[in-house]
Amino acid sequence: MIEEYKVCDQTVSRLDNLIWQMAAIVFPITLAGLAYFGTNTSHTFSEFITLVVVAIGAIALLLNWYLLSSHWASYQKVTIYRMREIEPEIGAWLYRYTNFVRLSTRERERRIKVASNPDEKERLTKLNGFFGKFPFFGLFRSMRIVTIIFISGWIALIIREIIIIF
């Protein structure tokens, strides 16, 4: 069980690295394109066509990153779920704790109340007292917001050029 837990931990780390290494390539390319076309002062029809082609490519790249990252993050969730299953068998608590603290305070208190194991009840009570409100944001939400911001930037540039040129 410990060996499987280690493999799961390595899988979570590897997938997290894949998501953000790909982002380290996609985001600077997108930002460079937005900066270049955003500061462009000559507004010709041929440059508008170039902007539209580059914007479509950038949006496709961003969507590709988002979809691949969502896919990989889903595998992470499955792996973390498996780690939470293994933890009671080996006496580990990391992912059980993280699953607990991301709950609302009301849900945490309900979870403590229904805990049948005294050790679990004590651990969760201490953890709840230590954390209070936990600032959970989440990988999926972060990926979605970043993708929306970048795509909105490209759409805004296209609209700006349409207004200026036509």
Overview of this protein structure:
The chain is 86% helix and 0% strand. It has 166 residues and is an all-alpha fold. It has one domain (2-165). It starts with a helix and ends with a helix. The mean pLDDT is 94.
Brief write-up:
With 166 residues, this protein is mainly alpha-helical.
Order of helices and strands: HHHHHH
Largest sheet: none
Structural class comes to: mainly alpha
Give the rounded overall mean pLDDT: 94
Distance between the termini: 66 Å
Low-confidence sequence ranges: none
Strand content of the residues, in percent?
under 5%
What is the approximate shape?
elongated
Secondary structure tally, helices: 6
Radius of gyration: 23 Å
How many strands?
0
**Estimated helix fraction:** over 70%
Provide the domain count: 1
